[in-house]
Specification:
about 350 residues; alpha+beta; four-stranded mixed β-sheet; 12 helices; about 15% strand; globular
Length: about 350
């Protein structure tokens, strides 16, 4: 499957392409000026008056009208920042614990996908997307600390914690959660109950890093799913030695990782991943403790983010499927902390 088809086969990829289309169609432009901020891009997208469109079919027709009017040559004039702001809007609307919203439902329609195809081609041909398939940039990694919208900044200094013990605790808690949800399912097979939806190693001490782009800064500041704040402190991270990095470049790489290090979670993910994929499957996620035996970190490329999250990905070595959920674009999860240290003072 080619890159365009992979992007349009993913809800995040479709939403991103639609955002670019909305932001670049003739009616959204004033002369040759483009949106200069996420807030401006949101104004463009919010100009589609959903409240005035009561039927899904009418909303789809409106989306088609806008997307069919896009002059793809105009996408070549967009700056990298403008393109990434459109991606940020798609990233922020990622949901893996509930059904797709009305826009995601519309963007999966064949006619809409056909309208998105030239937009996807133009984006992937842009010089600003040339690095989206690149592996981790070991000389350009940053740790991002977000300001808590309720409690403010942490009084504790930013530090890198020992990861290994946290991963063991994560696996113990994951297995305990699976047993609990299996009891729920045995007691009431038809019960629909929310629960853990992520497939990432959210363990005590797990460090996440991302690269910075010239003139833009660290991508983790604004490319964050379900983001609550763009206020952040950014700390450069120094990588030592030659860490073993597993690269996720697309759905097949994620499937291979899960197949090689499987952890069955069919009960705990049953309801939430049915909501996001529409499928009941025998679900698996990676056993991150086992992954850490062979790899120090796992990196998700930008292209992988646009093609992989939120879809049911069949496995070959295990009877079931998996979902990538909760992983931000170009983010590296460090499963071992011996290769990374903080460098310099944080910047706001």
């Amino acid at each position: 499957m080619d890159s365009v088809a992979l992007v349009l086969g993913s809800p995040r990829g479709r939403r991103f392409c639609a955002n670019v289309g909305y932001a670049s169609h003739a009616g959204a432009r004033s002369g040759r000026h483009w949106p200069q901020s996420t807030e401006h891009a949101l104004e463009v997208l919010d100009a589609v008056d959903v409240r005035a469109i009561t039927e899904m079919s009418e909303l789809a027709e409106h989306a088609l009208e806008v997307l069919d009017a896009v002059d793809v040559r105009a996408i070549t004039e967009m700056s990298e920042l403008e393109i990434l702001h459109c991606l940020a809007y798609a990233v922020d609307f990622a949901r893996y614990w509930e059904p797709p919203d009305e826009e995601d439902v519309i963007f999966v329609r064949p006619a809409v996908i056909a309208a998105l195809r030239p937009i996807a081609r133009a984006l992937l041909a842009s010089p600003h997307s040339a690095w989206w398939t690149e592996p981790i940039d070991l000389l350009n990694q940053h740790l991002v600390e977000k300001r808590n919208p309720i409690y403010g900044w942490s009084d504790l200094p930013v530090r890198i914690y020992r990861t290994e013990d946290g991963l063991e605790q994560w696996r113990a808690e994951a297995l305990a959660t699976e047993r609990q949800f299996l009891e729920y399912q045995n007691a009431d097979p038809d019960r629909h109950i929310g629960g853990e939806w992520w497939s990432t190693p959210f363990a005590n001490g797990t460090t996440e890093t991302t690269r910075a782009r010239d003139g833009i800064g660290a991508l983790g500041v604004f490319l964050e799913e379900d983001s609550s704040s763009n206020e952040a402190r950014v700390q450069p991270v120094r990588i030592h030695g030659t860490p073993r990095i597993y690269e996720i470049a697309g759905p097949s790489d994620w499937a291979k990782l899960v197949d090689t290090y499987p952890l069955a979670v069919p009960a705990s993910r049953r309801s939430v991943w049915y909501d996001t994929t529409g499928e009941f499957r025998n679900w698996f996620i990676p056993d991150w403790v086992s992954v850490a035996d062979d790899y120090d970190a796992v990196h998700l490329t930008m292209m992988a983010y646009l093609t992989t999250p939120g879809i049911a990905i069949p496995l070959s070595a295990n009877s079931g499927a998996t979902v990538l959920a909760g992983w931000n674009p170009d983010t590296t999860f460090w499963l071992r902390s011996n290769n990374i240290t903080l460098d310099d003072d944080p910047t706001g």
